[in-house]
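User: Could you walk me through two proteins back to back? I'd like the raw sequence and the structure tokens for each, with a short line separating them so I can tell where one ends and the next begins.

Assistant: Of course. Protein one, sequence then structure:
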Amino acid sequence: MNRRKVVSTAMACFMSAALLTTGCSNSGNQGANSPSPAGGKNTQTTVDAGGPLEKYETPIDVHAVRGINGSYKFPQGEDIGNNLWTRTYKDEFGINLIYDWVADSSGGNESAYNKKLNLMIASGELPDIVAVNSKQFKQLAEDGQLADLTEVFENYASPYLKEVAKQDGGMAMNSATINGKLMAIPGFNGNITNANVLWIRSDWMKKLNLPEPKTMQDLFAIMEAFATMDPNGDGGEGVVGLAANKNIYDSFADLLGFFNGYHAYPNGMWIKDASGQLTYGGIQKEMKPALAKLQELYKSGLIDKEFGAKDAAKEAELLGQNKLGITFGANSNPFYPFDDARKLNPNMDWKAYPIPSIDNKPARPTVGFPIGTYYVVKKNFKYPEVIVKMFNANFEKFYGKTGDWDKWSVTKDPVTKERLEAFKWPFVYGFPPDKDVPGRYEALKKAVASNDPSALNGEQKADYEAYQAFKNGDQTKWSTVRQAGPTDSSFAVLNYYKEKDLLYTNEYRSSLQTQTMTLKWLTLLNLEKEMITKIIVGAPLDEFDKFVENWKKSGGDQITKEVNEWASTSK
């Protein structure tokens, strides 16, 4: 896997589902637990804990649990309980991290790991620290099993960690706060990198002398030209104008960006209506004209006739066949799937654009709630600050002034030379919301303009070196430059969204599902996708109205009520 793909795709996915992709170790002894002195309230200052980045004067044992899947690899002779990061915790911070048990985390909520963790939560026998999902966090907090970390964070968070906690306006920290008390440290993540961008085959545009798209109408003209003017030189057969896949929403061949261009907000997005109430975007009238146009494009042959039977990976095969020219998708698409396709078509080039609008109002790309993992401490654990000190260590090692990105995030087996994803090994990991945009993007742009990389951190220096190498003809750096480069890149587009305040964040800003969401949401989302597919391939538009009615009766109205109850108590 390419290094930059690891950075911006695997890390983001890792953070949004950390419980499904964590590692393993052997069992250890019982943790060092002791009741705190004031009626069960946690001790907020440990005498020998030192400062935010300092070592415990007396080493401490800390017990945890983890899951593992097949993506975890280590240098020979090492595992999740003995590696670069566990040794660093011990040697530099005096933290002896012990995993009491491990289990297979493959399979999401139904994994062996998650089932075992749920049993542990139900029993009340928690390890000292544990990473949980939003539902588990809510249950633990309601059951009174968690330490209050309010003072711990204030006393032990490093200045950089406190800065990170503010980068999203406090959204992550607010989600971890219950009744005014900080009950977890959220797995910080950036929502801007989840926004769709528009990708277009720029070499085809140049060949056909097409102008860059400013509006959706311009984009339709480009689709038509790609499908009819033989941009790949094979006689004009089989070129698809717009990518789509059976899952409708995905990191590639994603139709969410298309709907956003029509000011429609499906796929779990809650918006405010004229009265200020929250309502579901996928049932609003703005959906119908977008659906009508998609049906028209499909009928005209500008959307893959077989999209309804293809997932994103299968649709991506059209790239290697040199038959696809436009897709809405993720900022990381230069690494996958474009990079593989360029190996088969070396002259292929793609450029990122903002999502265009169907009218004179700018399109607003949607971003969901970015937090899916919470790191909690068992109530009455003697060293509650340890989870904060672990976060301090990660942010400093990865992104701090003394950080070394290549050493701590992606390394090589000294024997086999295999690339290893070391960013998965720490117990905690945080993704600063501003890390990539504007962080990496603005840093690289400034360094390129001044020809001076001296102010860059390790990750940013790697971007700079890749950019210079690409300028000198190294095509292996194409993906990095198309993602993070100062122009024509996905980060440039995301930065434009940020500067113009175009991002549309889900108004339901909670990682916790409402009661009815837990029971009904997956079914409702599947109904939505089925309706979209049926209309695209030719069903009457009134199928949308039937869907709305069915959505409301099948739990949607009750969910809307619950979402607004949440909103009324979250102001």
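----
Protein two, same layout:
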Amino acid sequence: MRNLLRRFISDSQGNFAVMGAGCMVLVIGCAALGVDIGSIYADRRKSQSAADLAAIVAAGNLGKAISAATATVTANGYPASALISVEPGTYTPNAALAPQARFVTPATSAANAARVTLRTETPLYFARMFTGGRSHFDITTRATAASTAVASFAIGTRLLALNGGLLNAILGGMLGTTLSLSVMDYQALIDAHIDAFDFLNALATRLDLTGVTYDSVLSGNVKVADIVAAMLSTQQAANGLNAATAALSKISLALAGLTTTIVPRALIDAGPYSAMTVGSKPKTGVSVAVFDLLSATGAIANGTNQIAASVNLGLPGIAAVSVMATIGEHPQGASWMAVGMQGASVHTAQTRVLLAIKLLGSGPVPVVNLPLYVEVASGTATLNAVSCGRPDVNTSSVTLGVTPGIVDAWIGNVSAADMTNFTSKPDPGAATLVSLGAVTVTGRAHAGMGNTTPTSVAFSYSDIAAQTKKTVTTTNFTSSLTASLLGDLSLKVNVGPLGLPIPGLGPAVTGIIGGATTSIDQVLASVLATLGVGIGQADVWVSGVRCDGAVLVN
């Protein structure tokens, strides 16, 4: 036995067979690496391409994302079961966010992106001996694509008629200075348009900010004088030396030395372009009338300060008008103009106006002193939809949901303290309308009108190109505000110890107010429009729309 073992150990026959068997295992392993792993990588690229295409198609058809992605997957030679998931979500193109944090599902607002997960199989050949006999290898690929459907829009109230004296008094009061512009100057400012991002670039230059984002420019405290100066440089660069440039120059000089500041974000919300570096410019057009931008700046700058002015509009039945106005804060985080996707919104500011109107009387009542208080709550416009006309952009459209601010009006005794107390609404007592010595007439009336249901307003591409302003009126606004107040007016004739009753005194006062209804409405409309709000109305306009096809993002 010992000899047999010694002979086996010393025998060298068959060594090559043993070595050959060992090398064959190595050859098969190399073949597995060269063929199977190469096949896996090739199929992974093919699967990733299919996932990319499916994500792009799904993001471009978010209303039918699953069916669109499924059709794309099957068209690329994979079974529908290979599509594991299609997740609509919100993609934020912000370089400051980590790539994995830019896509959020479910969508935080309106979905603008889709993530597709695909699982495919690659057959194994030589590698089966290392995988316990498994005949395939699972490949999981994922792709995210986002579509761009963005609009720029604003809310306010148009000036139906220009009155230089009224505009100088109100706008000057809002800006904290004295203005002496003509009607022609104001018309030039209304007609002149500048690009909002050109304005922000000019503002950054004036503030000596370089290499920062638009968000940085919008979030700081900036002097109103610097904002108007940036408007002036933008207007001059865009339109040259014309009447609007001269008018803005006058305003800029009038603001020299003033230290009032605002946060520009209350003016413009740059939306998805907030993270862009100053100096770069998005494709979306954001054109804005210089006067609209100026008026909004004044409204924001005013804060809760009171504007006091006497104006003469030359209206029938009115001897004099004294105006006191206060503008409340914008809703938190709100702006007057926005660039955004579905769900973005803009707001007007809460506004209070107290008019002391002296009405021309007749007979025993020479003058009626009418204290008219009007409060307009914040109005809102929300971007409900952007319909992208592909491939013809001229068929694109935008839909806004608009709710004008609710109006609350009084004839009564409202104090200056009531005007600045935005924590509560005034509940005034009766005011003295007529004073004839021992005989007085007091009165009180209240009217409220408003609609809390948004009205859908559609803008065609031609409306957008022309920046057409459309007016939304509250559904229960069926008559003039003054007429509504007259319907609720309660008068009381007070006769002192030495006074004598005057027959028909109450009806005479009512008749004088009623005869001046149209003029009173005009005063209200003119003053409120100068402040950027309307009586139960809101003007909205869309200044630009951008519809890009879906693209892969990370």
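The mean pLDDT is 83.

Let me know if you want the two compared in more detail.
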